Amino acid sequence: MNKVLVLHGPNLNLLGTRQPEIYGRETLNDINNALYEKAAVNGWDIKALQSNHEGGLIDAIHAARDDGTAAIIINPAAYTHTSVAILDALNAFEGKVIEVHLSNVHKRESFRHHSYVSLRADGVIAGLGSQGYLAALDALIRGAERA
Ligand code: CA2
Predict the structure, then answer these.
(1) pLDDT by residue (tens digit) across 66-110?
(2) Is residue 23 annotated as part of the catalytic site, yes or no?
């Protein structure tokens, strides 16, 4: 069974509680449940994890190298713009990587325009809200069907 790791970075546990005009009204549980449902319908296995710690995200990426994970969907949140360590960990992972942002980071402050993770990502989705995660999973499923 194709296995996908979904990683959510710092503060994304607060989704649905503040700044709905930027990040929407859905909670992280809503997003994960929609992903679990889409994965199940297509016979895929999903593991979702949120961490407020850089090391927690890196440990999860390392574990994905050894457990047969085919792809990682990651919203590194603020670590997108700062973390060479997450980039290095993703560079050591051999499967597909899709970077997702709820907001269109390119319409926001200039410090959000640069992403270390984009140097590794096979695809980047920004500004589609929670639909971006489903689009990422859809791309992975369709890509595997074509392979
Ligand atoms: O648009 C995105 O998905 C971001 O990755 C979200 C990050 C931000 O630092 C990136 O530049 C773009 C911030 C996540 C914070 O999430 C919150 C959600 C609700 C309330 C407060 C923070």
Answers:
(1) 999 999 999 999 999 999 999 999 999 999 999 999 999 999 999
(2) yes
For 58, 64, 72, 142, the CA distances from 94, given in Å and listed in that order, are 14, 9, 10, 19
Distance 1 CA to ligand 1 centre (A): 31
Q: How far is CA 18 from its chain centroid?
A: 20
Beta strands in 102-142 (DSSP E): 123-126
Give the full edge-to-edge strand order of the sheet including 45-50.
45-50, 3-8, 71-75, 96-101, 123-126
Q: How far apart are CA 102 and CA 84, in angstroms?
A: 21
Q: Which of 8, 23, 116, 133 is catalytic?
A: 23
